[in-house]
Structure formats: structure tokens, C-alpha cells
Amino acid sequence: MPQAKTSLTLPSLSMDFGALYSESLYWLRHHWIEIAIAAVVGVVTYIVIRAARRASVALCNRDQPGKLGWWRIAGRTLSRTGRFFALAVALELARRIAVPPSGLSDAVHALFIIAGVFQGALWARELILGIVEANASDDGYAGETLGSAINIVRVLVSFAVFAIALVVVLDNLGLNVTGLVAGLGIGGIAIGLAAQGIFGDLFAALAIIFDKPFRRGDVISFDQTTGTVEQIGLKSTRVRPASGELHIIANKQLLDKSIQNITQRDHRRNRFVLGVTYQTPPELIDRLPDILREEVERCGQRFAQAGFANFNASSLDVELEYDTPSADFAPWYAARHQVGIAILKRFAAEGIEFAYPTQTTFTAAPDGTMVMPYAAPGAAS
Predict the structure, then answer these.
(1) What are phi and psi of 26, to 5 degrees?
(2) pLDDT by residue (tens digit) across 249-307?
(3) Which strands sit side by side in the sheet containing 247-250, from one edge to the other?
(4) What is the CA radius of gyration of the chain?
(5) Does 6 have pLDDT greater than 90?
């Protein structure tokens, strides 16, 4: 039986190649004008595509040096156009003009499909990576972490786009890709479940780098921790508070918290509660907001608000709020001292006294009348 199968297959193959050879000779003899025109069109197409690739490199220079903008992304994407793709496009155009035999035409068309799909995957990869790098390129994010993140994104994107390209090519060539797609899907789910903790921290690191809620060197606050970000790693972020110890927290856990970026605020607010004595005239208390505004602005700070706040047990409370136009701690600390001294001096000049806890004791006679602890005015001593 094997010999009979071989004897049947070889003559059929020889007949196919023989028929193709005969058709090709007939095509060359009787369609040489179309072939010549197709050859010219194919050569011109190849030259134009290669020239467009070289011209795309010039697009990269339309943006500022070192900045990855849209022109640079487009230029870098188009510069990835390969010779194989240019040749496949030239042959496909020539095929449509010259109309070769079916066997040769099918081979050229299959070559064009393969080249086009994989070239599209290459363009898509470069475009995605260019957008990712453009969003991530910023001072404070560069370094080993950004480089490692870009490398990981490059691997993931390359695997995804070329896997899709392979499936598309096989499907266009008439092969059944259902099993391959199912296998890739099951394999991806298995890998994701096995390493979900690692991937969770990894994608959280990518979110920090690309979304930029904070950067290295920023002072952030979360839970009961306030400190400076020293390093953004692929798995964890290191924060050092003012007390000196180093806090290491997983990126996924960090993003699940409410984070306050203290460095990125445009000002710092301070609040004073000033308690004055009950003997202070109401007219003078009514002038206090204007007095406090003058002293705050004299110290170079931004006055926010001031006014009467509360009747306290031993004082009349007046609140003052002002802003220091700086995010740094040192200017805010120095301004607080300066404004406090200015208020002390102004209150002394205005005759305004600060209240302190006091207690008055009254003595009553047996009939309930108050007994003065001192002689009544005008009484004989």
C-alpha cells in the first residue's frame, strides 16, 4: 500500500509542476508587454517605499531634541518599514498588472499577506511603545525603574502583536487556528493565575510610572506615614519619613490607599488661634481682621481669612489663616515664626492683651450677699 500511494503522488506532483512550467512559458511569451509594465511599476514601488522610509527619519527631527513627540513617534514607526515588505508590495502590484498563472499568483499573494501582516504588527508595536515612552518620559521618573518597565512593556507588547499577527496569517492561509487561539488563551490564564501577585505589583509600578501620581523625591502621605519617596521599584516603593527609618510598601498596596502628594501642592496654609482677654473693647476686636491682614501681608504671605471664632472660658478667640506661596517646608516654617513675631509686636503696640487661664473666687455672707475681699471704695480704713 505505501508503494501504491507513492506511485500515485509523484506523478500528480510532476504534472502540477509541469503544468505550472508550461503556463509560465506561455505567459512569458504572450504577455511580455504586461510583464514589462508590471516590472517597471514594481521597481518604482519598491524605490518609493524605501525613499518614504528614509524620509520618515526626518520626521524625528521636527520635535525638540530629547523629547519624544508625535512627529518623532510617527517617524520612528515608519522607519521600521522593512525591505521584505517593500518587495512584497512591489510584487503584489506587479501581479495585479501582469496577471501571472494561478499558481504563481497565489504564491505572490500569500507572500504579500505574510509580509503585510507582520509589517503591520511591527508598526503597531513601535507606535504603542512610542506612546508609552512619551507618556513616561519626565524628570524624576527616568532611571533603572523606567528602563526596566519599558523593557517589560516591550516584551509584553511584542508577544501580543506578533501572536495576533501569526494567528491572522495562518487564518488567511486557510489553516484552522481555533485550537491555537484556545491554547494561547488557556496558557495566558494559567500564567496570570500563577503569578497574579507579581503581575499585580508590576502593573501597579507601571501605573505609578505612567500615571505619575508622585515621583522620586516627592513628599507623600498615606495612612499614618509621611515621607520622601526614595525609589520606585517594579515591586515596591521606598519612602523615608523625617524620623529616619525606611518604609517599604508593595506598589499594589500603595495604590489602593489614599495618597496625598505634599510636594505638588502650590502653597502651605497655617492657622493661628489668638485668645484675647474679655476686657478687650469690642471695637478693637472688630478691627483685628484688618490688623492681622496688614501684618501677614507685610511679612510677604497671602492672607486668607480672619475673624471672631469663639467665646472661650478665659478668652475671646480670633482665628487667622494665611498661605505661604511655597510647597517647601522651610519657607513655611520661617514664615510662621516671622508672622508670629509680627503679631506679638502689633498687639503690644495696640494694647491688646493675650488671655491666659484665670479663676475668680467670690465669698458670700450668711444672708447670701457677696462679701468683697477688699474694702469698698471710699470706706474708712
Answers:
(1) -65, -40
(2) 888 888 888 888 887 777 889 999 999 999 999 999 999 999 999 999 999 999 999 99
(3) 247-250, 236-241, 225-232, 219-222, 260-261
(4) 41
(5) no
